[in-house]
Amino acid sequence: MPKPLDVLFVTPPSRVQVYQDLSRDLAAIEPPVWSGLLTTFIRNNGYEATILDAEAQGFNHRQTAEAIVAANPRLAVFVIYGQQPSASTQCMPAGRTVCEILNSLSDIPSLVMGTHASALPKRTLLDEPYTYVCQGEGPHTILGLLRVLNGSQSSLASVPGLWYRQDGQTAFNQTAPPIADLDAVLPEQAWDILDMTRYRAHNWHCFDNLDARQPYASLQTSLGCPFKCSFCCINAPFEVPMLRTWSPDNVISQIDRLVRVYGVTNIKIPDEMFVLNRRHVIGICDRIIERGYRLNIWAYARVDTVQDHVLEKLKAAGFHWLGLGIESGSQHVRDGVEKGRFGEPEIVNTVKKIQAHGIHVAANYIFGLPDDTLDSMQGTLDLALALNTEWANFYCAMAYPGSPLYAQAKEKGWSLPDDAGGPGWIGYSQHAYDTLPLPTDRLSATQVLDFRDRAFQQYFQNAGYLTMLDRTFGPRVVQHVTDMCAHNVRRRHHDLAAAPAA
User: Fold this and answer.
1) Closest to 229 (Cα-Cα) out of 366, 135, 115
2) Half-sphere exposure of 78 (CA within 13 A, CB side)
């Protein structure tokens, strides 16, 4: 007779609400990185754990709740992370809906964890339907809670990082120290319980072969970031800005398994700052090169951390894309959010240097940062058009919970999605119907959003960009991007403006 299930790690279905029609064919379907790491940790401590990835299964909210009930775990852990480090908040509504249905069907206790829960633990406990909230990284919180639930540990007060209700009051415990030895504590993701063929790379990641977006893996090689950009909430679960890494030997052992067992060649490195620790990066690249794998990898880099010798290694190892945080074309605007001390010449030179090594650039830009004006946002778009990188992500500034910008916005009374009468947490999504970005001193939230949406269309329909795509990837990718631009993302404020007067 199989052992009873101790923990079910749940990824709620968020993609349709977060990405609208883009979720059908264009957006990636990401493997649940944290759930995979936590499952291995729990198994290694003698408990039974598995993953319910509703996104990959294509489940709706009710089907997800019913699957949890059918699994009958001792504890359901809702792992709320998004496809990029700041996207936890936008996934909270899906988790809430699933947990509300679960509570109506069973008395299975639930724990929620993720960047958002760590940023706002007390509010999450009070406002959301979960039994418990985890503040911090999570492994030792889950393990301690399991020991209480099975009777081997007597008191919730002994569970690190746990928020809970006690005698009608909120109670919380000191978080566990950051994990020092990632190789020992979180040695690998539980690949064996995932159907890797269900996961799909971003469309641009596979511009070299649009028919080969599956299978796909996301592989963490470090945790945290040492920098302090005011718009970023990545360090909320870790509490202090720092960078910890898995060893190159650990990373290559997971790549070996992905390639040899599951046939994976498309790999994302979701580390907030992969191209930073030179020894770490070269150690991983050298091991890939020794094996002769033909991989298609992308990772994040930073304008002021890219070196020629590292780029040579990255290209030889199969890193075909680097995501580069440019953010703004204005030095003044970048300085206002503590985004490095580099100027436009450094940005241009870095992009050219990366491309000269045969690596494509996915440039990231943000409109509506606190010091932005229409002129400065136009300057950012002009810089993007001039750089003409192989891909560009255009974002609106969001004061994500856990970021210094969120605290600043609350202090100054700026309008936020989670204010009374606002759209709620889904308003923090970049592509949702209810997206509500941060206003600036001179611009309303809707002005920023409208500029972002126009900028997207202008960039991807630009003749210079399409010519470059044709030269680099061929006519099929040009047609693919043209078709992509036909997907107009719906926005609530547009529909309200277009509605006939009563």
Assistant:
1) 366
2) 35
Q: Which CATH superfamily is domain 195-414+443-451 in?
A: Aldolase class I (3.20.20.70)
SS3 322: strand
- HSE-CB at 246 with a 13 A cutoff on CA atoms is 25
The pLDDT tens digits of the residues spanning 218-232 come to 999 998 877 777 767
Map residue 244 onto helix, strand or coil: strand
Q: What pLDDT digit, counting tens, does each position of 277-306 carry?
A: 889 999 999 999 999 999 999 999 988 878
Whole-structure pTM value = 0.92
Q: Which residue spans within 276-419 are E strands per DSSP?
A: 296-301, 319-327, 360-367, 391-396
Q: Stretch 255-268: mean pLDDT, rounded? A: 97
Copy the structure tokens of residue 425.
């947490």
Identify the CATH assignment for 7-172 out of 3.10.180.10, 3.90.1030.10, 3.40.50.280, 2.60.40.2890.
3.40.50.280
Burial of 431 (0-12, 13-18, 19+ CB in 10 A): buried
